[in-house]
Amino acid sequence: MPYYPPVGFHFRVEFQGIPGLKAQDAFFQEVSGLTRELDTETVKSGGENRFAYTLPVRGRYPNLVLKRGVFLDTGILQWVDDAILHFDIRPVTVVVSLLNEQRQPLQSYQCINAWPQKWSVADFNAMESRIFVETLELSYHFFNVLKS
Asked: What is the pLDDT of residues 66-92, one digit of tens each?
């Protein structure tokens, strides 16, 4: 029997289609950007000056943002380097799964045709003692919600 409400800190990230990934490639401390929005267009009607029509145009999916402590040598970093440095862009499927206490998926989000758009590292700051974090932003076409 599933418990309610599930906790947001127990999740898994999987990259499907990147050869040579290591176990640590799936360790992230934060995932954001799983959002669906409708783009709209404003249309003014001739002869009707009291208002304008707002019409839906298409769905929009902001970037998927993944954060983690820096790993120095990973398959994901090679995939990012290939895309950004060599313009060798190989879209993959990224699955983010919310897990239960047995590490089984309660619900998963399947991001289709994801590719690295931005990679950055945290600022260096001698006044703070925190983990050095890298951020990976992925552009993707859309996501599907997969229920277990």
From this structure: 999 887 777 888 899 999 999 999 999
- Helix (H) or strand (E) holding 81, with range, is helix 75-86
H or E stretch at 16? strand 11-16
Domain limits of the chain? 11-147
User: What's the whole-model pTM score?
Assistant: 0.85
75-107 burial, b for 16+ CB within 10 Å, e for fewer? bbbebbeebeeeeeeebbbbbbbbbeeeeebbe
Question: C-alpha angle with apex 118: 15 to 88, nearest 5 degrees?
Answer: 65
3-state secondary structure 17-54: CCCCCCHHHHCCCEEECCCCEEEEEEECCCCCCCCCEE
As its CATH architecture, domain 11-147 has: Roll (2.30)
CB of 95 closer than 8 Å to CB of 29? no
